[in-house]
Each structure stands twice: as structure tokens, then as C-alpha cells.
Write a structure and sequence with these properties.
Helix content: 25-40%
CATH class of the largest domain: Alpha Beta
Number of strands: 18
Number of helices: 14
CATH superfamily of the largest domain: Metal-dependent hydrolases
CATH architecture of the largest domain: Alpha-Beta Barrel
Largest sheet: 8 strands, parallel
Distance between the termini: 41 Å
Number of domains: 2
Radius of gyration: 21 Å
Strand content: 15-25%
Bound molecules: zinc ion
């Protein structure tokens, strides 16, 4: 669709909007009308597309990932381990295998997987900078532009290695000056503050056990100065609690507060092991949490207190987490995982609509955005459209529930900023078989 062409996406089979049974009018990159059943667009349209086979969601938003890990899925050295042992097994592998070429293919593959699952905005926590990979975020910006997805580039960092009492080896850490200097560079080059931004930058020191408190503080100050957001792993395991208590004499949330992170420009990955009063402090401050159900189950980390966090005021989003602690990058599948895991925690108080809301509005709030994550007049035209004609949906009643309960995992059409990026289940401009071959080959030879 060209800019300023008004297109009526007509009469969807179902749509995640209270009153848009008649469809949507898209003008350029935005939704300009949500039509009730039987209504006609207020002004003439240039084109009409029939969505009567499609269940339409706002484009899904992934708020935590490590795309380079597509290179080490189901790695024999790491399967069946919990987080700290899993990381110690994989750090040296990553230091060796993540090169500019493999990183580019890993990013392209993960973005394509996400896009095909209905994801239109992806945040990647890239904290691994072995020698030679200094331009990692430049590679990701190029790849996101080529595929046409929105991306929050997270300038991750690690500066606390084993010799200083941290978890990662020397081969994957950088010094503080290098990290802060490059952080400032990528913010200046890629961070778009305006509505409809295709690229944003967040600063993302990796975790309490891989960065120094000084780097946490300096990153927070730089983010404030540059108007960007902060992200880190927190509250993921009991091992992390023990590390913080031994090294810093406090719990992870205290550590966050002491270093200037307890505010509404921060969102955290995981947030599993918080006490009730800590949930109150996080929610009161507006700190967001990205819930990563598959990763938390696979690494046996625990169950995030999603409802308590939301009730306390914390934005709650969804993330697939890294492709080695999920072994997939499919956000629609993650919606189903979120529903199922939260049923164990909360019973039927959590519904499929909650899980869909986390992957859309909740994730948008984590990223500090109001222009995406919902279908509404004035919002960006980011849409994920699924059909129900696979065997898995046969016999299904409620179409929105069917997506989650029957296990939708591949969108038929995906629109980002008013442009179709997936049509008939195929990503435009990407040779999926060739990508699979190249990525598979480079992984095998690493
Ligand atoms: Zn992670």
C-alpha cells in the first residue's frame, strides 16, 4: 500500500476490538477508522480488501529476546540445566560462534520467525560483544529495515567477568568506557523518539551477576539524558537472589533502586522471584515486567506473579526470551504458553484475552509506546491476521479463543505501518528456504 492510499480492510471474521466488525480504514501508516458492523467508511477509499477469512489482532510485540541464540538451540552442552549452569555451558560457545556473519543470519532468522508468528515489533537484548562484533546493533538496524519490522535495539552489556566475581568469562565482556561510548553512539544514530518510530534504542546491562553497579548507574544516567529506556534481567532465579545478597548485601529489587532504576522508564525480563512488598514497590514506580513463560518453564526458573504485578501498577508484557532458552521465536505460541502457565498459577482468573493483551497493549507499555499494541483510530496500522482453515481449528467456536486454545502459530497476513509484510503466509522479499539453508549451514560449521 502506498502512502496516503486509503484502504478498507473489510469485515474481518473476528477482530480484537470492541466495535470494529465492519473493518478498518488504513491511511498511510495509520488506522483512521474502526467501523461497526454494517457501517461504511466516512470518506471514499482507494482500495478494498476482504478480511472475511481472517481473525485480526494488533501486531504482537516481543519485549525480550536474544536473537544470536538461534545459533545454539537445543545445544547438547546446555539442555536440562538451570540458568547459571546453562549460561556457564553456553558463554564459551557463544564467544566462539557469534561473528558478524552468523549474527546477521541469526537476526534475520529470528525476525522472520517472529514476523511469521504475527509479531510486528521486536526488542532484542544484545549483550554479547566478542571482539569483531562491535557493530552488532548496526547489523540489527539494517536487518529490521530490510524486513520492515519495528525494532527496539537494546544495547546490552557485560563488564563483570569471572575474574572479578561475575559469571561470564573474560572473552565476552567489555570495559565500562567502551560500553558507554558505544551506547551513546547507537542512541544518537538509531533512536527515534517520534510517533510511529521504526527503530528505538534502550540501554540494557545484562544482569546483576554480569555487570558492575557503576555500569548500572552510568547507564541509567545516560538513558535519562538521552530520553531512552532501560532494561535488564531481574528476579529470574534464586541463584540471582543469593548472588545479590552475597555480593551487594541486598535483594535484586533493592539493587535496582540503589542504582537509579526504580522508575517508569525501566522494564525487566522475567520478574519471577519478587516478594509481595517488592511487587508493590515495582508497581508503584511503574517498572514494567516482560513475562517469558517458555523460558521460565524450560530453565525451571519459576512462575511470574503476573496478576499481582499488574494489580500493583506494573506494565506486563510478553517475550519469547532467547532462542536457546525457548528454542523458538514464535510469539503467538508464547501467548498460548502464557495462558497455560498462568492457569496453573491463577486458575481461570487468567483468560486468553489477558494473554493476548499482554502480547499487545502490555508489551507496548513496557516499551513506552502508545502508538502500537492496539487497534484504534490514530494507532499505527500494525496488524496480525490469522485464518482458521488448518485442521487444528476445525470445529472451533469462538475465533479469538481458537487462536490461543487451538495453537495458532503462523499468521496469514501481517501489516507493519500500513505495509503488508506477510501475504499468504509468506514473508515478502525473504526466501525462507534459502535463509534456512544459510543459517543451518553456518550453525553446523561453527
Ligand atoms: Zn533473556
Amino acid at each position: 500500500m502506498d502512502a496516503h492510499v486509503r484502504t478498507w480492510l473489510k469485515t474481518p471474521l473476528a477482530i480484537l476490538h470492541a466495535d470494529a466488525a465492519g473493518g478498518l480504514v488504513i491511511d498511510g501508516a495509520k488506522i483512521v477508522e474502526c467501523l461497526p458492523a454494517g457501517a461504511m467508511p466516512a470518506t471514499p477509499v482507494d482500495a478494498v480488501q476482504d478480511l472475511s477469512r481472517h481473525v485480526v489482532l494488533p501486531g504482537l510485540i516481543n519485549t525480550h529476546h536474544h536473537m544470536y541464540q538461534t545459533l545454539t538451540r537445543a545445544h547438547p552442552a546446555a539442555i536440562n540445566r538451570e540458568l547459571f549452569d546453562w549460561l556457564k555451558a553456553l558463554y564459551p560457545v557463544w564467544a566462539r560462534v557469534v561473528t558478524p556473519d552468523s549474527f546477521r543470519l541469526a537476526t534475520r532468522l529470528a525476525l522472520t520467525e517472529l514476523l511469521l508468528s504475527g509479531c510486528t515489533t521486536a526488542a532484542d537484548h544484545q549483550y554479547l560483544f566478542p571482539p569483531g562484533l562491535e557493530g552488532a546493533l548496526d547489523i540489527q538496524a539494517t536487518e529490521a529495515g530490510a524486513i520492515g519490522m519495528r525494532m527496539t535495539l537494546m544495547r546490552g552489556s557485560m563488564n563483570l567477568s569471572v575474574k572479578d566475581g561475575g559469571l561470564p568469562p573474560d572473552s565476552v565482556v567489555q570495559d565500562q568506557d567502551t560500553i558507554l561510548c558505544d551506547s551513546e553512539r547507537v542512541i544518537g544514530r538509531y533512536h527515534q523518539a517520534e510517533e510511529g518510530a521504526m527503530l528505538q534504542v534502550a540501554l540494557a546491562p545484562c544482569s546483576p551477576f554480569s555487570v558492575t553497579p557503576a555500569l548500572m548507574r552510568e547507564s541509567a544516567e545516560l538513558a535519562t539524558r538521552c530520553g531512552c529506556r532501560l532494561h535488564t534481567h531481574l528476579g529470574e532465579t534464586h541463584d540471582e537472589d543469593a548472588f545479590c545478597e552475597a555480593r551487594f548485601g541486598c535483594r535484586p529489587v533493592d539493587y535496582l533502586e540503589q542504582n537509579g532504576w526504580l522508575h517508569d522508564r525501566t522494564w525487566l525480563a522475567h520478574g519471577v522471584h519478587f516478594r509481595a512488598e517488592e511487587i508493590g514497590r515495582l508497581g508503584g514506580a511503574g517498572v514494567g515486567v516482560c513475562h517469558c513463560p517458555t523460558s521460565n518453564m524450560l530453565l525451571a526458573s519459576g512462575q511470574c506473579r503476573t496478576r499481582e504485578l499488574e494489580a500493583a501498577g506494573a506494565p506486563l508484557g510478553l517475550g519469547v526470551d532467547g532462542s536457546a532458552s525457548n528454542d523458538g521465536s514464535n510469539l503467538m505460541q508464547e501467548v498460548r504458553q502464557a495462558l497455560l502457565l498462568n492457569r496453573l498459577t491463577y486458575g481461570t482468573a487468567v483468560t486468553h484475552l489477558d494473554a493476548l493483551r499482554w502480547a499487545t497493549e502490555g508489551s507496548a507499555r513496557c516499551l513506552g509506546r502508545t502508538d502500537i499494541g492496539r487497534i484504534a483510530v490514530g494507532a499505527q496500522a500494525d496488524l496480525a491476521c490469522f485464518t482458521l482453515d488448518e485442521l487444528r481449528f476445525s470445529g472451533a467456536g469462538d475465533p479469538l479463543a481458537a487462536l490461543v486454545l487451538c495453537g495458532a502459530h503462523r499468521a496469514d497476513r501481517v501489516m507493519v505501518a500500513g505495509q503488508w509484510r506477510v501475504v499468504d503466509g509468506q514473508p515478502l522479499g525473504i526466501d525462507v528456504e534459502e535463509l534456512r539453508r544459510q543459517h543451518g549451514n553456518i550453525s553446523l560449521n561453527l
